[in-house]
Amino acid sequence: MTHLVFIDDVDMRYGGADGTLAVSGLTMRVEKGDFAAVVGPSGCGKSTLMKLVTGLHIPQAGTVIVAGQHVTKPVSIVGMAFQNPTMLPWRTTLENILLPLEIVEKHRHRLRAHRKDYVAQAENLLELVGLKGFGAKYPWQLSGGMQQRANLCRALIHQPDLLMLDEPFGALDAFTREELWCVIRDLHAAQGVTIILVTHDLREASFLADKIFVMSARPGRIVREHRVPFARPRDLDLMYEKEFNDLVHQLHGEIATARMAA
Amino acid sequence: MTHLVFIDDVDMRYGGADGTLAVSGLTMRVEKGDFAAVVGPSGCGKSTLMKLVTGLHIPQAGTVIVAGQHVTKPVSIVGMAFQNPTMLPWRTTLENILLPLEIVEKHRHRLRAHRKDYVAQAENLLELVGLKGFGAKYPWQLSGGMQQRANLCRALIHQPDLLMLDEPFGALDAFTREELWCVIRDLHAAQGVTIILVTHDLREASFLADKIFVMSARPGRIVREHRVPFARPRDLDLMYEKEFNDLVHQLHGEIATARMAA
Amino acid sequence: MTIVTERPGTPAVSKPRALRISWVRAAPWLYTIGLFLIWELLVIALQMPQTILPAPSRIFQAIVQYWSPIWKNSLQTLFTTTLGFGLAVVGGLAIGLFIGWSKTIYAGLYPLMIGFNAIPKVAVVPILVIWFGIGTIPAVITAFLISFFPIVVNVATGLATIEPETEDVLRALGARKIDIMLKVGVPRSMPYFFGSLKIAITLAFVGSVLSETVAANYGLGNMMSSAQSQFNVPLVFAGLLMLAVEGIAMYALMAWIERRMTGWAHRSTMAH
Amino acid sequence: MTIVTERPGTPAVSKPRALRISWVRAAPWLYTIGLFLIWELLVIALQMPQTILPAPSRIFQAIVQYWSPIWKNSLQTLFTTTLGFGLAVVGGLAIGLFIGWSKTIYAGLYPLMIGFNAIPKVAVVPILVIWFGIGTIPAVITAFLISFFPIVVNVATGLATIEPETEDVLRALGARKIDIMLKVGVPRSMPYFFGSLKIAITLAFVGSVLSETVAANYGLGNMMSSAQSQFNVPLVFAGLLMLAVEGIAMYALMAWIERRMTGWAHRSTMAH
Amino acid sequence: ETPVKFTLDWKFEGPAAGFLLAADKGYFKDEGLDVTIDTGNGSVEAIPRVSTGTYQMGFGDINSLIKFLDEDPSQKVKAVMMVYERPTFAVVGRKSLGVTQDPKSLEGKKLGAPPPDGAFAQWKAFKDVAGIDDSNITIESIGFPVREPMLAKGDVDAVFGFAFSVVLNLKAQGIADDDIATILMAENGLNLYGNAVLVNSDFAAENPEAVKGFLRALAKGFADAVANPEEGVAAVLRRNETLDSDIELERLHMANEMNIKTPHVVDNGFGGVDMERLGASIETLKVSMGLKGNVAADQVFDPSFLPSKEERMLP
Ligand SMILES: Nc1ncnc2c1ncn2[C@@H]1O[C@H](COP(=O)(O)OP(=O)(O)OP(=O)(O)O)[C@@H](O)[C@H]1O
Ligand SMILES: Nc1ncnc2c1ncn2[C@@H]1O[C@H](COP(=O)(O)OP(=O)(O)OP(=O)(O)O)[C@@H](O)[C@H]1O
Ligand SMILES: [Mg+2]
Ligand SMILES: [Mg+2]
Predict the structure, then answer these.
(1) C-alpha distances out from residue D188 to A90, D107, E114, E145, Å
(2) What is the CATH number of the domain that holds B166?
(3) Where does this protein have coiled-coil stretches (chains A, B) (predicted)?
(4) pLDDT for the residue numbered C11
(5) How many domains does chain A have?
(6) For residue C267, what pLDDT band results from cuts at 50, 70 and 90?
(7) In a domain, B132, yes or no
(8) Is A15 inside any structural domain?
(9) In this complex, is the C-beta atom of C163 within 8 Å of any C-beta atom belonging to chain B?
(10) Looking at residue D178, what is its pLDDT?
(11) pLDDT, tens digit, for every residue of E51-63?
(12) Is E132 strand, coil or helix?
């Protein structure tokens, strides 16, 4: 298998034998370098899927393999970002970005000696997302959009093979959101990292992803996989083209059906 | 003047003489029965505009007239709803909806005697927004979308002439949001209430409003007023039509320009 | 109440779960028993005379032996404590709302209350006794004085954390200050109010016992101070143990009331 | 700290604003002066003998007359209080983190702590004296015992309110329990910790004075109990006043430290 | 130098002058002792302080000591020098409230008593020897801080306490001298001893010379306090500036007169006891304190450390 993420027939139930069955018969594959988006009705198990991939939850049935290894404990090769930026308010933005390095085994012992290199790397990332010079500021001195940018830097600092984004732009206004779409698009192009993006926003999914997975209502499983046909690099104006709107319309219909089925 | 809301050359500054100038030279008119939307870059003064109209703030310069009266104190003929539903968690949904009646002069003295009528009215509203039978539940037993519906009921219970909505759907997922668009559309059609909607979502504004006001960056003023040409009743599929996307694209361009100017 | 849950590595459907919950249930008893065991062993090992630190076994013996006076005095103390606490509840709520009403009143009274709180209440008891004679009244008042402060502070905090948007909604409807206070302020501060009762009730015990020690014919405080002068140290400790038990029981009661009365605060997003 | 701001009706640029702020500033002084005035008048009106409730004027006279001993004893009390408070800070932080570490430990120790808290510390002082003699040590320990509880509870609460998402981010990176504790738990609980210091310091005063009353050659507690046994009531009140002043001063200091150390908590959304 | 920690029965007040003078005038130093004097919290609490060895020596009530040893005879404390040859135990009332020097005048009255008070502890024995019928007497439990004010206010008719404390405190409350009726229990048939110097028996066994030296120094100190009370009061005021020297002087005078320089002491010297009388007082205590009968006089008082009679004569 060359799949970076390989999920096969997974069942995951919360809270004991008679708890909520969150996903059931979930099967999904993501290849290295892919940009995958997961869309689906609310509460269908999208966040659960993320936690299965990162090893924060272990399924009751089925197989989760990430980077060729059975997932039985948290895998440290992923970077994560949530809707809520979860920056630590007592650290400067730069220190927040360096946090994963203090934790991941591979880096924590090297950090003290090579601090300068790491800081340089963090500053590169900050520049990439358009936050040059904001490293010394505290998170609460940044706007929501800026925090979310920093959050992306944090997710990327330890050079993860896989970036997991759980509705990272949900709380932002439309314009900031579009700016960050471009940031992510460029990051994906520049760093060749594999990305799985969970979102409610079908236009976001269509604009960014190569593959869109549509999930059913809870218990979630993948009901449809779309290849997104638009050539890269993509421009924001793409969203006003007919094919784009048709794809969004189609996705919309599928999810509406999935919701009805629930 | 036949304008329900008449704002003329208004300046509003927060926090004393050298504070933030939020809006400046703001001029705007909304007629009775209109559905107006206000869009603009973040922090441009949209919420300030709302507070000027409702009399929560009094401007330093210029005129605000609502329903023929100079606004010098809170006007009680408006219903308001914010992004955050601000339901009182210790009251049932029905009691929350009845809250304005306990406050507005006109109703508070009649409430005890005519409680049954008022409750019937509230239940009508609940049915209208699709919450029939949920009146006895507490707000925290409802989903975000359901709370926002109840919030609309609360804004409408005292039969205000003017409904002010400040990003009421910002925190909801795409599908719930579309459902509530339809609810609002139908409310406007059925009750003939005047609505001013502040939003970041250009598609929301285009789908719902008759008039769209575009604001400049802070200090905010109206830079452009659009008439929305689509016939009513409108259907959600409208959003996949070319003219609709063109309008959104145009608004997008205008706000991008306004942001740049800042 | 802990940063680590059992999620990582273990399948979410886990047999040991039921077991673990019962550990948490059992922990208070186990720790209490453990404390008594260590204490007993320490007393034996260090050969402490019972007039200084009696062993738990000796204390329990004293409880059995003196059960009748312990019981009667406990009831008396419980009575004065509850009365003082009741006053503190009413007074604390009223003062808290009053203080939360205006910034100026708050700024003016707060330092005075801190100063008063830094004064040991033992020093106040004699004055109370001179005014009210000995017995129940000064004990009730001391319990009141010592326990109303946390209630006031909490209620005022509750008022201070009202969401400005909620206020705006009401103000736009023409609500007056008193409307906002009654419709939002009071209910909003209830979780804070009920939350403070747990602390207040333990303090009320301290207060009433303090006063009974100085001036009362009955009550655990009086019993302990006479036992102390008789060198009946096991009885003193028996009194302390009873106090601890009553304190825990009342605390649990308050915690239960808090859960009952402010369920919405814990289920809604309002509880921090 | 109040539900009503001056927004309605008044233009936002308002002249009286500066005036109003200074009212808030002046309020503590005005209220204090008001309190003393009412007290003075009450004493005169009711013809209270000074051995029961001396008038403020008489108390100030006593402060002037006995300034040298008051000053020396105040320093002594301040010293023991600060020492005991320092221990409580270290111990409370450690125990709070320890308790927050695990649900079972928390469940086990919490009731014991409540029980201990319901015991009046006066009862503990004689035991301390027997172990350590009289003087500074029992006073320091009493101050410690009485003030560490709120610190423990607050630190444990801080740990309990860590956002699960923050934890998830770290756990996904392979963080161990101790990593999460050090990187997130400890800093996260700092605002709660610093917030508890204000309460703890006033309690520490109560504790050290209590112990000095029973067992010390010096300190405000000793001075007051000796004055009390001499029926030098104005001096007793002078001592109480000094205590209140020291208490307010230390409270203000702690509030200042809190603001300094945890500015981020107040400026970020994390504050409650 | 042998370090000795010494605990008083109460705070630094006039009657403590003897101890403080012995320290200030270097009498302890001359005996090779390094003595620290700490205040106490009642003549009862001094006993456990000494028995545990926290304090090597102390000053406490011998009757309470008997009760203490009766509870647990293995406790390591004994008395080695009698200071208050007659106890200061008294019932103090106000003439205007119908209490006179006659104990019988207490009948039908309301008496205030702090539970830990030494005088109140002897009430049972006293009412027997004084022939008081207590069927109509009510006893209110009131703490030390409110004892005299309540008597001054007339909330109670008489109170239990040490004569030199209660009387002076009453005066401080504005009660006239001739309104105060002091019933000294020792003058009305209660044949007990008062406060004595206590020693930890382990310490005494290991440092007999130190104990002897201590008592020798103390005898000098008390002789000075009797001969020159002003000097004694000055020593007290050095330790507590807030005291009023006139009142302390009067307090010291009263202690000297009523308790220290008693007729028996004038004849037989300061510090010793009559073992027979001590034995009799143990019998009395069986009534008042409910002794189990575990102690005998020689377990309580050990005269072997006392200096010679000549050294113990008061001026
Ligand atoms: N810790 C948990 N314990 C019990 N049930 C849970 C837990 N987390 C999630 N669930 C339930 O599992 C289901 C799937 O949850 P999940 O968070 O994965 O959905 P989602 O697709 O991310 O939803 P959303 O779109 O709202 O983010 C939901 O019904 C939810 O109620
Ligand atoms: N109470 C206040 N005191 C001082 N400045 C304020 C206050 N409220 C708003 N402002 C400032 O006034 C400007 C306009 O604020 P307003 O909330 O009206 O903007 P907005 O368009 O609603 O923004 P958003 O899109 O983020 O909701 C902003 O720059 C803001 O910082
Ligand atoms: Mg989710
Ligand atoms: Mg706004």
Answers:
(1) 8, 21, 51, 47
(2) 3.40.50.300
(3) none
(4) 42
(5) 1
(6) low
(7) no
(8) yes
(9) yes
(10) 86
(11) 888 899 999 999 9
(12) coil
Cβ D173–A103 below 8 Å, yes or no? yes
Closest in E55, E173, E239 to D231, CB measured: E173
Instruction: Flag whether pLDDT at E189 surpasses 50.
Output: yes
Range(s) of chain D covered by CATH 1.10.3720.10: 58-270
Six-digit token pair at B157?
């219970």
Average pLDDT in chain E: 90
pLDDT at D21: 57
Report the C-alpha dihedral over residues E15, E19, E21, E24, rounded to 10 degrees. Answer: -140
Residues D108, C30: C-beta atoms closer than 8 Å: yes
Q: Say which residues have a Cβ less than 8 Å from residue C239's Cβ, sequence separation at least 6.
A: C70, C73, C220, C223, C224, C227
As a whole number of angstroms, the distance between CA B179 and CA B169 comes to 10
Q: Residue E142 in 3-state DSSP?
A: coil
Mean pLDDT of B130-140: 87
Locate the DSSP E strands across A32-157: 35-39, 61-66, 69-70, 78-82
Amino acid letter for position B66: V
Q: Which residues of B touch C (CB under 8 A)?
A: 51, 54-56, 73-76, 78, 80, 82, 84, 86, 88-91, 99-100, 102-105, 138-141, 158
Q: Which amino acid is at A18?
A: D
- Measured between its terminal Cα atoms, the distance across chain E in Å is 29
Q: Which domain holds residue A60?
A: 1-72+161-172+190-229+248-262
pLDDT tens for the 272 residues of chain D, in order:
333 333 334 344 444 444 455 777 888 889 899 999 999 999 999 887 777 788 999 999 999 999 999 999 999 999 999 999 999 999 999 988 888 877 788 888 888 888 888 888 887 887 888 788 888 899 999 999 989 888 988 888 788 777 778 888 888 888 888 888 888 888 888 888 888 888 899 889 989 998 888 888 889 988 988 888 777 888 989 999 999 999 999 999 998 888 888 766 665 543 33
Taking only Cα atoms into account, the Rg of chain B, rounded to an integer number of angstroms, comes to: 18
Question: What interhelical angle do C186-214 and E144-153 show, nearest 10?
Answer: 80
Closest CA to E30 of E303, E220, E223, E225: E220
Identity of the residue in C8, C10, C12 whose CB atom sits nearest the CB atom of A74 = C8
Check contact A-B (3+ Cβ pairs < 8 Å).
Answer: yes
Query: Which residue(s) pair with A10 in the sheet?
Result: A26
Instruction: Look at residue E154 and tell me whether its pLDDT is greater than 90.
Output: no
C228: burial class by Cβ within 10 Å (0-12, 13-18, 19+)? buried
Burial class (CB in 10 A: 0-12, 13-18, 19+), D138: buried
Among candidates B80, B90, B103 on the partner chain, residue whose Cβ is nearest the Cβ of C179:
B103
Residue B186: is its pLDDT beyond 80? yes
What percent of chain E is helix, strand and coil (3-state, nearest 5)? 50, 15, 30
The mean pLDDT of B192-216, rounded to a whole number, is 92
For D230, list phi and psi in degrees, rounded to 5.
-95, -5
Cα B115 to Cα B95, B131, C267, D244, distances in angstroms = 11, 20, 29, 54
What is the pLDDT at residue C5?
Answer: 36
Label the pairing between strands E110-113 and E158-162: parallel
pTM: 0.81
Report the 10 Å Cβ neighbour count for B117.
11
CA neighbor of E225 nearest in space, from E254, E195, E193: E254
Query: What gap in Å lies between CA C179 and CA A186, rounded to an integer?
Result: 54
In a domain, A27, yes or no: yes
- Altogether, the residues listed in chain C come to a count of 272
Q: Are A256 and A38 in contact (CB under 8 A)?
A: no
Closest CA to D269 of A153, A143, B139, B41: A143
The average pLDDT across E68-95 equals 91
Q: Which of these, D120, D72, E171, lies nearest to C244 by C-alpha position?
A: D120
